């Protein structure tokens, strides 16, 4: 394929001292040569591939130095885009890197659209679609674990799995073909049915497994929605503060800080939490009063985890009991705070009302018990089917939708087999499953879908 030469700033804005202007396309090296004066006088078109060169960017009109730079020359196809790639490393901040970009654009490159580098990698066959999407997830990944998932996907784990499933289906389809071509052989038909049933069931189970990981994938990307509840003054705000201060707050670009509840993103031992601070409201303005019973019920209902705070130096009240009632059936950790004060709470009563939920005692004032709480959070989360790192989390909504459609198609095929539907009808559902799975890895995707996907990328990626 042939494309023009694109350029963009490829480092995150404001991050680090070095910024990179990246070019990709046939004219990359030529454009760089027009602007770059190497310290040793060499032309970039003559240097070996994958080498770095020190020198100055110079305005061709008046020979004035624009910037001190290092230029990397990487000739295709051994590059991310499979095209010739130039990377101009500038020391200055955003102003100087912008200036370099302007020169590059003036001398022949076109400003890349968001995601266009990755799009080219895809269109040039360097990566498949799910890998391209993984790059996008990587850019957005908010925690280390989410990062690992994205990386795993990029290495093609999902692609491999999908490919092997499609291979299974192809084998069935091949048998079906034989069956249709030689209908007179009874044993072929019998075999086909048996094999069909077996393989189709296997494919269905694998698709289901993948779908099961998707919920966890969502949690990893968006954070475990965690709501802190408790009567006024028990220490909700204090809890939020200590969780935020002891853990690196995750910087997020998700717009979501609502008027009613304050959100904070933290990474607790690898578990990304989206903390919903219902306590970010004046003590006198009870959360339920303020946002209304319905609304707070809704917040609770959508939570993945509840941190229910009680006061150690106060007796249990009906209000506490109502809270337990409201969060019944959910994942709850009970926190008994203010252990530095004299005990008033009846622990036996708490235990019975907590009904098996993990109980942690804290004195947030004295900074005690937070470690235990963090431990409780992470073991609750990882006690599930999640095995860090070695599972394929499906975390992309397009993948999830396609997997659901594939599941439906394979189930129709299975129903067909079970009801003795003519095999060439079953074949249609099988083919459809195969196609839908193919869409996940970018086979049989339409141009418009591709454009839409890649436009979601950050600039310069
Ligand atoms: P909220 O209304 O549930 O959000 O409670 P706050 O976090 O605002 O705390 C209410 C009051 O209790 C504040 O004065 C805190 O300093 C105090 N507090 C919080 N945790 C503790 C604790 O562990 N021990 C003691 N003695 N006071 C605490
Ligand atoms: Zn408070």
From TrEMBL:
InterPro entries hit by this protein: G_TrmE (IPR031168), GTP-bd (IPR006073), GTP-bd_TrmE_N (IPR018948), GTPase_MnmE (IPR004520), MnmE_dom2 (IPR027368), MnmE_helical (IPR025867), P-loop_NTPase (IPR027417), Small_GTP-bd (IPR005225)
Residues binding (6S)-5-formyl-5,6,7,8-tetrahydrofolate: 22, 87, 126, 461
PROSITE patterns: G_TRME
Top-level taxon of origin: Bacteria
Residues that hold Mg(2+) according to the record: 237, 258
TrmE-type G domain sequence ranges: 223-382
Pfam families to which the protein is assigned, alphabetical: MMR_HSR1 (PF01926), MnmE_helical (PF12631), TrmE_N (PF10396)
Binding site for K(+): 233, 252, 254, 257
Key words, A-Z: Cytoplasm, GTP-binding, Hydrolase, Magnesium, Metal-binding, Nucleotide-binding, Potassium, tRNA processing
Documented EC number(s): 3.6.-.-
A GO MF label: hydrolase activity
Enzyme class: hydrolase
Localization per Swiss-Prot or TrEMBL: Cytoplasm
Cofactor(s) the protein needs: K(+)
Binding-site residues, GTP: 233-238, 252-258, 277-280
Cofactor binding remark: Binds 1 potassium ion per subunit.
NCBIfam families: mnmE_trmE_thdF (TIGR00450), PRK05291.1-3 (NF003661), small_GTP (TIGR00231)
Record's subunit section: Homodimer. Heterotetramer of two MnmE and two MnmG subunits.
Function: Exhibits a very high intrinsic GTPase hydrolysis rate. Involved in the addition of a carboxymethylaminomethyl (cmnm) group at the wobble position (U34) of certain tRNAs, forming tRNA-cmnm(5)s(2)U34.
Family stated for the protein in its record: Belongs to the TRAFAC class TrmE-Era-EngA-EngB-Septin-like GTPase superfamily. TrmE GTPase family.
Protein name as it appears in the record: tRNA modification GTPase MnmE
Provenance organism: Neobacillus ginsengisoli
């Amino acid at each position: 394929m042939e494309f023009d030469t694109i350029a963009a700033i490829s480092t995150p804005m404001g991050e680090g001292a070095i910024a990179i202007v990246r070019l990709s396309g046939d004219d990359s090296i030529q454009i760089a040569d027009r602007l770059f004066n190497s310290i040793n006088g060499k032309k970039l078109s003559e240097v070996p591939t994958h080498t770095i060169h020190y020198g100055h960017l110079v305005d061709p009109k008046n020979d004035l130095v624009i910037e001190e730079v290092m230029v990397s020359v990487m000739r295709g196809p051994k590059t991310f885009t499979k095209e010739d790639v130039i990377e101009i490393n500038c020391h200055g901040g955003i102003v100087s890197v912008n200036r370099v970009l302007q020169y590059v654009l003036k001398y022949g490159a076109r400003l890349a659209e968001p995601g266009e580098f990755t799009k080219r990698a895809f269109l040039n066959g360097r990566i498949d679609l799910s890998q391209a999407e993984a790059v996008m997830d990587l850019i957005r990944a908010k925690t280390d674990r989410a990062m690992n998932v994205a990386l795993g996907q990029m290495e093609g784990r999902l692609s491999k799995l999908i490919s092997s499933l499609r291979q299974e289906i192809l084998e069935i389809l091949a048998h079906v073909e034989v069956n249709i071509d030689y209908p007179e052989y009874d044993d072929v038909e019998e075999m086909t049915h048996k094999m069909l049933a077996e393989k189709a069931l296997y494919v269905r189970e694998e698709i289901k497994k993948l779908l099961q990981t998707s919920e966890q994938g969502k949690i990893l990307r968006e954070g475990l929605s965690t709501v802190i509840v408790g009567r006024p003054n028990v220490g909700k705000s204090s809890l939020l503060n200590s969780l935020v201060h002891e853990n690196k707050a995750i910087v997020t670009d998700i717009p979501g800080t609502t008027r009613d509840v304050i959100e904070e993103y933290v990474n607790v031992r690898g578990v990304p939490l989206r903390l919903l601070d219902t306590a970010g409201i004046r003590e006198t303005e009870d959360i339920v009063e303020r946002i209304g019973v319905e609304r707070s019920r809704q917040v609770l209902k959508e939570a993945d985890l509840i941190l229910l705070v009680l006061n150690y130096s106060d007796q249990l009240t009906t209000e506490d009991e109502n809270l337990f009632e409201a969060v019944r059936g959910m994942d709850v950790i009970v926190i008994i705070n203010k252990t530095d004060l004299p005990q008033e709470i009846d622990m036996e009563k708490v235990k019975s009302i907590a009904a098996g939920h993990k109980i942690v005692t804290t004195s947030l004032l004295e900074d005690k018990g937070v470690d235990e709480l963090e431990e409780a959070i992470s073991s609750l989360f990882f006690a599930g089917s999640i095995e860090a790192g070695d599972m394929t989390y499906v975390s992309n909504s397009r993948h999830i939708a396609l997997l659901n459609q594939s599941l439906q198609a394979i189930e129709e095929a299975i129903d067909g087999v079970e009801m003795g539907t003519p095999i060439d009808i079953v074949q249609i559902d099988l083919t459809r499953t195969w196609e839908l799975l193919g869409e996940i890895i970018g086979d049989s995707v339409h141009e418009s879908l591709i454009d839409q996907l890649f436009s979601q990328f950050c600039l310069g990626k």
